[in-house]
């Protein structure tokens, strides 16, 4: 009996580490498509994965029309798999599929398949030929092809598609080759004669990689053709995309023109209303003039909800608190001990942030966790976010930084909807108005703190919230000065806790927040200027309709 128990215990212990640590994972997906003169492509995929279930790996490739997929080869560790052509049988054991690959025809395409051989980590190289990928249009040679499917067994942590010229024709340049990308966050550009499309961070489960490329007529001799102009293909793909078109330039021009010819009376109205204090949306607060004070963090101390209301509060929409958000969360982590300050240099004017492991209580799907993961990625392996390091990271991953305030807005709106505080995006329910007004009143309170005669002992315990919200309001330095003046002992305790001068940290974090967000906005704006015309730049998260290839799903089964 004891021998049996030891055997069972040994088996459990042997599989427990794998069972606990293992998860379906696609660490990297590197795809190279070599295009030939006839428009065919030899596509090679390198999958760096961990599998925890199933007997085979499969990838659906549909929407093929007259295109074909053939000549599948798969290898691992230099060992080439046995090809079964189109006779692949999915109803076999993992041992029966080991070292073998094949193709399963479907109603609109194929599935390429190969045996996983075993559970655990693998690096597979799969290659196949797609005929007719580039097709001749009336005025160009082009394709719109999905290279990475949404709904994979696990979303890739990184993916890259390199499209190579093997036509023997002229070198691809930004003049003769126009590129657009859809389906995820990243960039697509013509680089050294090739088209390179790459994600800027881990993909989501519903994200894909679609590349649309237009070549000048005559650069290929395609075997397939379509009776359509490229603009037709382009207009279909652009629906729902974030690319800006020439119409956008006209709209901006007309807007600027109208701005300068707005009647003087309207301008005077706006100025007088602002000076007199009638500057808030009555639909949100029940009044357009808010003069009162509120002493505590509003809306149950929910930062996203307060940010949402601040963003929607103004009648004239002139305030933008997005540039303050990053600094507010960084200051929050500093005061909570999630990061600690580390002075750099002899005079300590440069401050680094050292990350701890205290993130277990931050929900993984929250905006705060998104920012934490971005900052930690920027910090690198040493988990020290050095001065200017996040600003450089924000320039490289500009779209992710720009999406952060949007996620905070969505989170705040969801909270307010659950509370039944909102009827529409900019109109509150009757019960909501009484609470929403506290956001503006709290800002008034912090702004007018020196004018308030009476003090409360409870204010000392609220100073962390005062500082965090002060950062969002753009007055954190002022709030800190008042804290130091009125409560010097408590101020010294806070500085001792964070390990660095508080006022200096606020200045550093405010600069980091503004510069990082502004740099990201400027970079995206620079790319958008030429993105609609195919000059490369950021991939559009939406759009891409009318694509060939691809499908939904894939991975272990």
Strand content: 15-25%
**Strand arrangement in the largest pleated sheet:** 5-4-9-2-1-12-15-14-22
Radius of gyration from the CA trace?
Answer: 29 Å
Residue share in helices?
25-40%
Instruction: Note the overall shape.
Output: elongated
The total tally of domains equals: 3
Q: Distance N terminus to C terminus?
A: 38 Å
CATH architecture of the largest domain, by name, is: Sandwich
Low-confidence stretches: 1-21, 246-257, 261-270
Number of strands: 24
Residue-averaged pLDDT: 84
Oligomerization status of the protein chains: single chain
Number of continuous helical runs: 16
- Classify the fold: give the CATH topology of the largest domain: Immunoglobulin-like
Class of secondary structure makeup: alpha+beta
The biggest beta sheet is recorded as: 9 strands, mixed
User: Mind telling me the CATH class of the largest domain?
Assistant: Mainly Beta
Report a brief summary of the structure:
By secondary structure, this protein is an alpha+beta fold.
Chain-wise SSE layout:
Elements lengths: L1 H20 L3 E12 L4 E11 L4 E6 L6 E9 L2 E2 L1 E2 L10 H4 L2 E7 L2 E7 L4 E12 L3 E2 L4 E8 L10 E8 L10 E6 L3 E6 L2 E6 L9 E7 L14 H9 L7 H16 L2 H13 L5 H4 L17 H11 L8 H15 L2 E6 L5 E6 L11 H13 L4 E2 L3 H8 L1 H21 L3 E3 L2 E2 L1 H18 L15 H11 L2 H11 L1 H11 L3 H30 L5 E2 L9 E2 L5 E2 L1
Parallel strand pairs: 1-12, 6-7, 11-23
Antiparallel strand pairs: 1-2, 2-9, 3-8, 3-24, 4-5, 4-9, 7-8, 10-11, 11-16, 12-15, 13-16, 14-15, 14-22, 17-18, 18-19, 20-21
Helix pairs in contact: 7-11, 8-13, 8-16, 9-11, 10-11, 10-16, 11-16, 13-14, 14-15, 14-16
């Amino acid at each position: 009996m004891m021998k049996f128990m030891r055997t069972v215990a040994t088996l459990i212990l042997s599989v427990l580490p794998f069972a606990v640590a293992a998860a379906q994972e696609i660490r990297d997906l590197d795809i190279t498509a070599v295009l030939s003169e006839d428009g065919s492509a030899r596509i090679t995929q390198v999958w760096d994965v961990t599998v925890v279930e199933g007997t085979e790996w499969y990838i659906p490739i549909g929407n093929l029309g007259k295109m074909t997929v053939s000549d599948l080869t798969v290898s691992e560790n230099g060992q080439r798999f046995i090809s079964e052509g189109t006779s692949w049988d999915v109803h076999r054991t993992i041992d029966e599929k080991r070292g073998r690959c094949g193709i399963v025809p479907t109603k609109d395409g194929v599935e390429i398949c190969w045996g996983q051989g075993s559970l655990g980590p693998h690096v597979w190289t799969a290659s196949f030929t797609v005929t007719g990928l580039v097709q001749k249009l009336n005025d160009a040679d082009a394709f719109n092809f999905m290279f990475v499917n949404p709904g994979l067994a696990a979303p890739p942590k990184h993916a890259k598609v390199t499209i190579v010229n093997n036509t023997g024709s002229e070198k691809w340049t930004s003049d003769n080759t126009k590129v657009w990308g859809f389906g995820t966050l990243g960039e697509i550009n013509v680089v050294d004669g090739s088209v390179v499309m790459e994600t800027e961070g881990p993909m989501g489960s519903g994200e894909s990689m679609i590349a649309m490329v237009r070549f000048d007529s005559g650069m290929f001799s395609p075997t397939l053709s379509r009776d359509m102009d490229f603009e037709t293909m382009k207009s279909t793909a652009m629906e729902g995309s974030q690319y800006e078109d020439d119409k956008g330039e006209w709209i901006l021009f007309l807007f600027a023109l109208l701005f300068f010819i707005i009647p003087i009376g309207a301008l005077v109205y706006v100025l007088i209303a602002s000076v007199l204090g009638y500057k808030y949306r009555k639909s949100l607060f029940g009044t357009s003039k808010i003069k009162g004070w509120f002493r505590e963090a509003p809306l149950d101390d929910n930062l996203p909800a307060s940010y949402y209301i601040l963003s929607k509060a103004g009648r004239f929409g002139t305030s933008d608190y997005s540039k303050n958000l990053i600094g507010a969360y960084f200051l929050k982590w500093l005061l909570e001990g999630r990061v600690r300050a580390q002075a750099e240099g002899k005079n300590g004017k440069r401050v680094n942030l050292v990350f701890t492991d205290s993130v277990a209580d931050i929900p993984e799907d929250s905006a705060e966790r998104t920012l934490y993961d971005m900052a930690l990625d920027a910090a690198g392996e040493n988990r020290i976010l050095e001065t200017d390091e996040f600003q450089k990271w924000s320039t490289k991953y500009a779209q992710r930084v720009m999406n952060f305030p949007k996620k905070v807005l969505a989170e705040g709106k969801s909270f307010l909807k659950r509370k039944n505080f909102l009827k529409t995006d900019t109109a509150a329910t009757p019960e909501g108005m009484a609470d929403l007004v506290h956001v503006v009143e709290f800002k008034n309170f912090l702004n007018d703190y020196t004018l308030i005669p009476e003090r409360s002992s409870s204010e000392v315990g609220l100073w962390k919230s005062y500082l965090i919200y002060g950062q969002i309001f753009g007055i954190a330095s002022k709030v800190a000065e008042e804290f130091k003046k009125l409560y010097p002992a408590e101020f010294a305790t806070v500085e001792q806790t964070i390990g660095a001068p508080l006022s200096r940290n606020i200045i550093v974090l405010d600069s980091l927040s503004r510069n990082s967000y502004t740099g990201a906005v400027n970079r995206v704006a620079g790319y958008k200027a030429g993105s609609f015309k195919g000059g490369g730049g950021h991939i559009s998260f939406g759009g891409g309709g009318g694509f060939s290839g691809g499908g939904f799903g894939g991975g272990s089964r």
